[in-house]
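Hi all, long-time lurker, first post. I run a small reading group and we've been trying to get comfortable going from sequence to structure in the token notation. Rather than ask abstract questions, I figured I'd post a concrete chain and ask someone more experienced to write out its structure so we can walk through it together at our next meeting. Sequence below, copied exactly:
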Amino acid sequence: MAGTTTKNAAATKKTEKKSAKVAKKGAAKRVAAKPTLLAGGNPQIAKADGDAPVQAYIAAMPGWRRDVGRRLDALIVRTVPGVRKAVKWNSPFYGVEGQGWFLNVHTFTNYVKVAFFRGTSLRPVPPGESKNKEVRYLDIHEDDKLDEKALATWIEQAASIPGWDGGSPRYGGSPL
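-- Answer (accepted) --
Happy to help. Here is the structure in token form:
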């Protein structure tokens, strides 16, 4: 009996080791796989909270847009310490805990769009209009000079006021 138990334990251990190796290999393949690019080159990243999915989105942004994404993310983090991040609707969202989301970023073929959810409350008001009366946009094209000082001012203002809560009927569910 003791010999059978030892054999069973060894077989179980071998099976567990093999399963762990297969699981690890599968996880590595999922990590290594490039995200699908949707219309306009927008990366398809699964909905998730935290910095990791936002960094995955930025890493998958094609060409010059990746550098813009990195610069925007770094500027937001510097301007709003402890900023909350998530990917929703294939776009990075930035917010303040307890105040909601204040902006998001979306990739298009010829530009990167920054949406300020309470943009009409900012001074000066960002230039791009939206169908939503409170939302304002800033479109960043490849050859644009990014005015980080003006952008930081908008980010700071946007983070200091109540943002979009993720489903308020006031916005009809989506801020955009």
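A couple of things your group might point at:
Helices lie at 2-32, 51-60, 64-79, 148-160.
Residues 22-32, 168-172 have pLDDT under 50 and may be disordered.
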